[in-house]
Request: fold
Amino acid sequence: MKWTLDAHHSELMFKVKHLMITTVTGYFKKFSVSAETADESYSKFSAIVVEADVNSVSTNNEHRDKHLKSADFFDVAHYPTIIFTAQGFDDFAGNLLEGDLTIKGITKSISLAVELNGIATDMYGTAKAGFSVSGSLSRKEFGLTWNSVTETGNVVLSDEVKFQAEIQLVKNDIAKQELQLTDTNETAQ
Reply:
């Protein structure tokens, strides 16, 4: 079965310490998720792909967002997409999902904590599944090395970046879509 992102009910965010005293939050306004499962129970994934449009990054500060898009950080001119892929995920034992994350052309294996929040059918008869996902990474391992030191010796940005996602997936029911299209065509005749 194939599943895709319900973008209206999902979010992808990250958090980083500034001056080691406050946390700044950023979002990717545009991202996609596709998944394939053996059945509707989500007990076995055969593939998961997440792609974030780096040009859609937003921290609610235009100057900071422009800096994040520059070669100092994400370098969107050369690396416009962040990609996470996982294959062969079997059950939620330990609630960990192992996969490969690619940022700025650098790919590393990471572990994500995943919580299945439930599966439901919406008012239109469409199957949906909700997940909470979290993790952290060293930004320097992905070539995001820019930093500065204040006059008092504090670093401007922490190396650790925490990220969190609230994901709602929609079952792609091709047969149902084809049936609806057939019914519509027959009605029109």
In short: Confidence is low (pLDDT under 50) at residues 174-189. The CA atoms of residues 127 and 162 lie 30 Å apart. The longest strand covers residues 106-121.
